[in-house]
Amino acid sequence: MRVLLAKLANLAGFPGFVRICDYEAGITDARIRVRVGEMFTIITVNGLDIYFHRLTGKIDGVGFTPDCKPDLAPLSNPALSIDERPPHGVHS
Fold this sequence. Notes:
Elements: H1 2-12, E1 21-25, E2 30-36, E3 40-45, E4 48-53, E5 59-64
Antiparallel strand pairs: 1-2, 2-3, 3-4, 4-5
């Protein structure tokens, strides 16, 4: 019965349903996250966000979410004061 309903839904062009979840596949080191917003369902795979329109199911765009944790982020080099900067045009 489920297969028949799924085939009819596909024939009619209905978008599929997904649940909000987080999933990690250890064998391939993949991280998948599903979120639902007002206009889009966002599926993130290893930091790549794929936006699906909620009513049509069509891909609307992609984005990138860096998987950066503040305690692991590299620190910036401190800025040099005016006295410490080399004269213009001199490279060390």
